[in-house]
Amino acid sequence: VHRQHVAELQREIDGLHPADIAYILEALPPEDRLEVWNLVKADRDGEILLEVSDAVRESLLADMDKPELLAAAEQLDAEEIADLAEDLPEDVLAELMHRLNAGQRERVQAAMSWEEDQVGAIMDFDMVTIREDVSLETVLRYLRRLKELPEHTDKLFVVNGDSVLTGVLPIRWLLVNDPAKRVSAVMAKDANTFHPEDDVTETAQAFERYDLVTAPVVDANGKLIGRLTIDAMVDVIREESDAEVRERFGLREDEDIFASVWKSLRNRWAWLAINLVTAFIASRVIGVFEGSIQKLVALAALMPIVAGIGGNSGNQTITMIVRALALDQIHPDSAKRLLRKELGVALANGLIWGGVIGFVAWLLYKNAALGFVMTAAMTLNLLLAALMGVLIPMTLLRFGRDPAMGSSVMITALTDSGGFFIFLGLATLFLI
Amino acid sequence: VHRQHVAELQREIDGLHPADIAYILEALPPEDRLEVWNLVKADRDGEILLEVSDAVRESLLADMDKPELLAAAEQLDAEEIADLAEDLPEDVLAELMHRLNAGQRERVQAAMSWEEDQVGAIMDFDMVTIREDVSLETVLRYLRRLKELPEHTDKLFVVNGDSVLTGVLPIRWLLVNDPAKRVSAVMAKDANTFHPEDDVTETAQAFERYDLVTAPVVDANGKLIGRLTIDAMVDVIREESDAEVRERFGLREDEDIFASVWKSLRNRWAWLAINLVTAFIASRVIGVFEGSIQKLVALAALMPIVAGIGGNSGNQTITMIVRALALDQIHPDSAKRLLRKELGVALANGLIWGGVIGFVAWLLYKNAALGFVMTAAMTLNLLLAALMGVLIPMTLLRFGRDPAMGSSVMITALTDSGGFFIFLGLATLFLI
To answer: Do B241 and A242 touch (CB under 8 A)?
Structure first.
């Protein structure tokens, strides 16, 4: 890039929204990415670091020295610093904490003390609080004195002398009611409140369900300690859905598309290794029946069909169950009913598709018995897939695990080994 | 359920938020669902129908007669009626349109004229508009006269005499600025605006990126015609991510977990049929090498490992590429680079994991050449998986298709047939 172009690029970057710069950085290969990153004004580094994906953030932070990192972090709010903290080198973090004032430090530490999936880790502290014994007129005058309201402010939080939340006053109501009225006469007393230890996924679902824009976070004594906003919840929803897809296919973390080969290998190796083990087990199941295959080599050609269709069908069942579990729609009473339905679908699919492929096998190998064995094996393996497709995610959940994680690998392992065993077993019994 | 319990249940239902009733309905098996549905007061039917999933909505509508359907629909806004319209029987819809006043009917028709994935189909008409030549004081007085502001109102839309949008006035700014100031002096002129023909996915990404709560929709002449709200965008994001997972596993639509066996079959059969065809093709590839398998039966036991690991690895690549494509992060220049990276990862995985399994095959079958063929076949199939994992989603996108849809089936078909062909082909060349 020529010097003249650089100046032009710099001007363009200065005019962009931080989220747009983040987007450009993510779409650039590493060298170009760092070149553009160096053109970004130091006072905007912080907000851009918050916008980029974890993987890209890592690559940007690696390029910054200590003074740059400190300058970037100092632009941020407490909860934003906490968000960034785990990616910062320890000496930078220590120096940063040292530079903060006591109140900020306490907030950063409080935010860092919560797990990533707890409300405490994503709440902010940009709250406007009012008392309930004043008039709306007084509230309006108070707001005017503030000069600026925090982003997304759609309601004011009403607290008493002990900072205990007693209600919320939606701005919409503040605007349409008689200014002479008291806050206590207008406010909503039964607002949706959350606790810092609440699970963020469930909280995001509540935001969706009740169409919230912001909500107060209170401690065990009802004291107001923070605020949640819809933009943080949208991030949670997006991240959850990305994580579900990733985990189904064994990508451990968000991968920078331009990550090095080495990083990609590390991100993906665990799943491949597990799959290798399950594939090896399936291979040994086949090994047991090598004698039968030698006598009737058609078995070798037909067996992957039984295994494959079982895996597909099982994955469909799991996809549906995982989603219903995430929405908390499955209760113990309904689990049995669900299992019956899935077994019914499997039986029908087995008889229909198993029948079709059994008929084709009969024609192809001029062997009616082989066709019947094929149909029976398909049906049994689809029943196995349905049973396991319901039980695997529900069991993972019961043991406190994420039902999406690893369920694809498990169902495929079971329907592969199971499919080979059922088909080759039946064939050995009836055909050899 | 006893009569006394019914009365109690009725009271409880009356006290619940429509979204909570929707949630309960979704988690109940069909008979209980209809029983609870009949307890819901008629004037709440409409809002609950909007909250439940498409599949459950269908089951509830099927239970309602014409007067009930009309009563429910008449409670709703124009864009909500449009949303429900496609699920209503034709005679009910005709009667409903007849009963609406001219303005409402026009809005419903306008909303129905847009595709489901266009902004026009999800915008609402709850806008508060003001003129730019009045003072903030006047605006405040005007709002007070309205008695109620639409939900989510975080900004007022400033229009001129021709209804052309000239800016937006965030409520936050209205509250903190001197009431004597004019709207034109305070408003933002460069607000994010959308067009009714815009794609909802991209619009939702813009909402996320710029942390919007509401945004104006304007026509080609800049005339204000509607409004978008974050809750509709959250629904889009949620629906997109659900659809991605579903489509990867061949569930055509959102399935009611208590759907009948017959409905489930219809929802899933297409994918199973396609998989059956691809599995059959793979089976015929094996059929070509039956002679080799008969001579060296170990091939039958080892071949699923080559195919399976290729499929897993290809799906990992596709997952990453689909996500990057959805975020619009892949440009023609970077595609080559991405392909090189994925091929590098595949080569490394092939040599490492292929080497491990080749070594195990050597030990197991006391056949060094078999081990080498195994390693070579794994490496080649992983390279094929990487190549196709990049090309399939990018090709689907180029032809205007959803890159997530069907890509899993395609990669698995290619790595299965390809894996069998490569492994059995190499074995026939070097071992038989």
So the answer is: yes
d(CA B154, CA A212): 13
Of the candidates A380, A248, A241, A397, which has an alpha carbon nearest to the alpha carbon of residue A315? A248
Residues A135 and A218 in one domain: yes
Buried b / exposed e over A327-360, threshold 16 CB at 10 Å, is eebbeeebeeebbebbbbbbbbbbbbbbbbbbeb
pLDDT in tens, B309-351: 999 999 999 988 988 888 788 887 788 889 999 999 999 999 9
DSSP of A269-304: HHHHHHHHHHHHHHHHHHHHTHHHHHH-THHHHHHH
ipTM of the complex: 0.84
Tokens of residue A122, six digits: 């994503």
Residue A251 has φ and ψ, to the nearest 5°, of: -95, 115
Q: Determine whether B337 is exposed, middle or buried from the number of CB atoms within 10 Å of its CB (0-12, 13-18, 19+).
A: middle
Minimum-distance CB partner of A251 among B171, B319, B357: B319
User: What is the pLDDT averaged over residues A399-408?
Assistant: 82
Whether residue A35 lies inside any domain: the answer is yes
B124-171 confidence digits (pLDDT tens): 998 999 999 999 999 999 999 998 999 999 999 999 999 999 999 999
Residue A84's pLDDT is: 87
Residue B253: inside a domain, yes or no? Answer: no
Comparing CB atoms, the residue among A211, A249, A360 nearest residue B316 is: A249
pLDDT digits (tens, 9 = 90+) for B26-85: 888 888 899 899 888 888 898 899 888 888 898 899 889 999 999 888 888 888 898 888
Q: Are residues B211 and B270 in the same domain?
A: no
Q: Which residues does B429 contact at the CB level (< 8 Å), separation at least 6?
A: none
Same-domain check for residues B139 and B242: yes
Do residues B106 and B159 share a domain?
no
Chain B residues near residue A283 by CB distance under 8 angstroms: 301-302, 304-305
> A184-195, pLDDT tens digit by residue?
999 999 899 999
CATH of the domain at B189: 3.10.580.10
Interface test with A, best of B151, B173, B341, B402 (most A CBs within 10 A): B341
A280 and A415 inside one domain: yes
- Between CA B76 and CA B50 the distance in angstroms is 9
Q: For residue B271, give the nearest of A28, A312, A341 by CB distance.
A: A312
Q: Which residues in chain A have Cβ-Cβ distances shorter than 8 Å to B272?
A: 309, 312-313, 316, 349, 353
